[in-house]
Input
Amino acid sequence: MRIPFSKIFLILTGFLLAPVVMGQPEMECMDSVTLIKPGRRINMYKFFDYGVKVIEYQANPDLFVKETKNTNLKDFGNFLMTQISGFGFNSSADGYWKVSGTIQCGDTIPFWTVFMFCGGRVEKERERVRDDDGSWSVETSRTNYFYWDDNAGGILIEGLDTIGYFLIDMDPDDDELYKKWTAVSFPAKHDDIGAISPQNSLIVPVNAKGRDYELIGKYRKRNFALIHNGANRKVLIFLDDLPVCVFQGDFDYAGVKKKYRNTPYILLNKNVLAGERRELFRLAIMSRYMNEYLSTF
Output
């Protein structure tokens, strides 16, 4: 079987660009596993661990739940006032967001659904505009606000069973676990972003810097934590307070030049059993999906 040169190049770069992890004794147990993304602007990844496996994520429609019951009547009233008077009227509603995504593998393993909840707000602005045929209509623009820094959290479901839950901390600097590992695993911070090597550089016109965040909770009855460094989009995953996975996701957004896109890579703890390694892959890709909301401005 002939293998295209482009695929060989991607496989090799997965090894070459993955950093050598040194410092903490626990980090020296990390083992590099080949991870590639077959194409741009898709959410599918392939990893080579006891055979070739495929994993992908998909975002589901966001659901906003309003706090008050009379918001629809208020919106309708504002619509009528704009239509009759010609003046624009604004409206807003407070409530909470239910955000969800699906993590799927290309085999018989049950799919995962991750749900995230946070407070939020929806603002609508209406303007009376003239159509091409000379008639008048009301044009509505909508702005959504997600308050991830205010008592946000989530749950993780496998098939129909809840297997994990977590709180979302958007200001993790004071957390003991974060302070212990950030100097070793996440040396690149926002104030020294220019010192990052070119292949990891995020000095781009859009979405140049992500946000730091931390997930703290339980996963399959074990202590679970996930720390994300927004400066280089790197993730460190812990089970029972021990690091088991280092993951850097790709930086594949519209407007980002090719030379600034991250090459994704993943490191796994050598002591993790073979059956648990795919679980870590799914947690890593879950964090990549979460970055669409938690880390991307």
The mean pLDDT is 75. Residues 237 and 243 are 6 Å apart (CA to CA). The longest helix spans residues 274-294.
